[in-house]
């Protein structure tokens, strides 16, 4: 039953907004933004912003001292005009007295502090500029509004309400099921693609209009100039923290971040480039040029013999084979782990810049990306785009104990890919991307980041780095002996006493090999 009263919000004669009692923000609503994030929600979800975050005119906004990732989000703000409780979606729009421009600023450096509440990351003073004018809702078509954002005069967001995931009436109906919307409350209705990071000195402008309505009414441009904060965070609460995932999400994509780095506006990814003047925490690889030269002539089968002598038996990644005949792969392990599919886990971890995308975006030259898929071959774990990304990044190969999508296309790439074969399905059938750079189990073998991965026609083997030098030296010697034995067999010698070599043959081998 509808409980929609006629207590109407008022505005001053300039059309500006009184201080709202509640500010409710929608997480995702524009298809363009959902595509950018890699997930499309089935139903709307929300968070609250404090009324103290409102800036009625825009003006200036401090980027907090010690933070890097202050991002803008141009949005359409709905101003509630009457007390509204339990209305239907068809009745929802009638509760709106007007619309205006909003900028839902947020600091990605503080996202981890609130675990999803967004209180500090989006609730700071001045983080919700509104205005400068309210467009009366009467006569407006809620599906024919437009929001645009400019940064330093360049248009960066431009979208309409024609195909929102959740129309305005639905948002109001959904919210009013459990809480009373009151005159003056504001609903921020989501941002389209194009949200990104701004720096001190940047000027951000947001405008909402109805270009097809009579008179093409507009909110005017809501202008905010970014300044640098000077007050440092104290030691009595969570401090700002950023990582590669936050940088890429804040800038909008890795490509946008890379462009910002090239323009001198952003810090490089930590995994790709240590800060100037610091020493990388990654230990120097034991896979030296000398060892690589020895490995070039050593088969996986021979390496396995040396490892078995040392008590290492479960070092094969079982069940995988290469997409290229005659492939040889050598590199250090970078790991990615999938867990079994569960709808709630996939909702939280499967979309957006998930662990799978992070792994392929941060794999370094010479690394082999090793994927734990629990031996589940009934879905793809790698496709053509991700395989190409790994190749472009300089990866030495990919190993998964699951399936590969776009198998024929992947086989055309230069990068070696070892898998259980082809499967057309996507992750959500069996897997949830979970974490990177951890110890995993792939094909029955334990794999840690930094382990040495070697693959050839016999399969893939894992060598603990502390054993690499002695195992390779022994295996290389065994290969030389095997080459000698093969030469003798080819010349007509019987294998008895030769394979393995008895004392007589060992003496003849030493003479054949000569001084070393």
From TrEMBL:
It comes from the Bacteria. Substrate binds at residues 383-386, 405. Keywords: Magnesium, Metal-binding. Mg(2+) binds at residue 406. This is Fumarylacetoacetase-like C-terminal domain-containing protein. Residues 22-217 form the Fumarylacetoacetase-like C-terminal domain. Pfam families: FAA_hydrolase (PF01557), RraA-like (PF03737). Residues 35-60 are annotated as: Disordered. Its cofactor is Mg(2+). GO terms for molecular function: catalytic activity; metal ion binding. InterPro entries: Fumarylacetoacetase-like_C, Fumarylacetoacetase_C_sf, RraA/RraA-like, RraA/RraA-like_sf.
């Amino acid at each position: 039953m509808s409980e929609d009263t006629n207590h109407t919000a008022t505005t001053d004669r300039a059309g500006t907004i009184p201080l709202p009692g509640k500010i409710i923000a929608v997480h995702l609503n524009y298809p363009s933004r959902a595509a950018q994030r890699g997930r499309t929600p089935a139903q709307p979800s929300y968070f609250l912003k404090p009324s103290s975050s409102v800036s009625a005119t825009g003006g200036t906004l401090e980027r907090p001292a010690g933070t890097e990732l202050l991002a803008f989000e141009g949005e359409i703000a709905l101003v509630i005009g009457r007390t509204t409780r339990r209305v239907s979606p068809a009745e929802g729009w009638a509760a709106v007295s007007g619309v205006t421009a909003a900028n839902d600023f947020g600091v990605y450096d503080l996202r981890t502090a609130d675990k999803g509440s967004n209180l500090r990351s989006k609730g700071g003073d001045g983080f919700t500029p509104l205005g400068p004018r309210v467009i009366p809702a009467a006569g407006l078509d809620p599906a024919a509004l437009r929001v645009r954002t400019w940064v330093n005069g360049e248009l960066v967001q431009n979208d309409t309400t024609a195909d929102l995931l959740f129309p305005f009436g639905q948002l109001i109906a959904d919210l009013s099921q459990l809480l009373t919307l009151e005159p003056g409350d504001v609903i921020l209705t989501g941002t389209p693609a194009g949200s990104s990071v701004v720096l001190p000195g940047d000027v951000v402008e947001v405008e909402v209009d109805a270009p097809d309505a009579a008179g093409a009414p507009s909110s005017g441009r809501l202008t905010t100039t970014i300044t640098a904060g000077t007050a440092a965070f104290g030691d009595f609460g969570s401090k700002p923290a950023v990582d590669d995932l936050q940088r890429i999400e804040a800038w909008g994509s890795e490509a946008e971040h890379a462009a910002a780095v090239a323009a001198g506006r952003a810090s490089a990814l930590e995994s790709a480039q240590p800060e100037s003047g610091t020493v990388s925490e990654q230990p120097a690889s034991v896979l030296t040029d000398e060892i690589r030269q020895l490995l070039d002539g050593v088969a996986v089968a021979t390496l396995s013999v040396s490892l078995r002598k040392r008590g290492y038996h479960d070092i094969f990644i079982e069940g995988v084979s290469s997409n290229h005949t005659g492939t040889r792969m050598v590199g250090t392990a970078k790991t990615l782990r999938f867990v079994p599919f569960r709808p709630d886990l996939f909702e939280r971890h499967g979309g957006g810049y998930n662990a799978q995308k992070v792994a392929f975006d941060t794999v370094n030259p010479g690394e082999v990306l090793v994927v734990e898929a629990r031996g589940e071959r009934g879905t793809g774990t790698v496709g053509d785009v991700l395989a190409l990304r790994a190749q472009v990044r300089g990866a030495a190969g990919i190993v998964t104990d699951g399936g590969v999508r776009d198998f024929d296309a992947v086989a055309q790439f230069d990068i070696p890919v070892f898998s259980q074969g082809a499967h057309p399905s996507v992750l959500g059938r069996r897997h949830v991307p979970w974490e990177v750079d951890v110890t995993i189990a792939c094909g029955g073998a334990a794999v840690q980041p930094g382990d040495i991965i070697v693959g050839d026609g016999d399969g893939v083997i894992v060598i603990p780095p502390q054993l690499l030098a002695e195992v390779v030296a022994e295996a290389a010697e065994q290969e030389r002996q095997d080459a000698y034995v093969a030469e003798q067999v080819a010349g007509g010698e019987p294998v008895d006493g030769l394979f393995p070599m008895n004392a007589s043959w060992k003496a003849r081998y030493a003479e054949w090999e000569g001084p070393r």
